[in-house]
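Record now logged for everyone:
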Amino acid sequence: MILVVEDDPQVARLIKLVLQRINQPTDTVSDGQSALEKARALKPTMIFADLTIKGMSGEALCSALKGDPATSEIPFIVVSGDRDIAEKAKNCGADDHMGKPFEFEDLIRLVKKYDKNDDNPS
């Protein structure tokens, strides 16, 4: 399950639709505190999070999850329209970043890059 942390309902719905098309179960939350609780409880396969979310910021969420041994291995991808996205993603310990607006192919590429189930030989 991929956790999407996005406070814009249209963007959250769009990401969820793209991920469902490639058979990725997805859950969405709109604020940092809910995301932190869900990530700790459900251990998603990956997290896509906006930097500007309600409550705890995306950077604080990233730092908290990357600083916790129970969640530090979950790939965390920052999704933002912020022009300093690369620097902010690096500073909080994110595994990657994706700018907004984004192309569907970029989203799918990142899922494939970090999908641990993909490296199983068939």
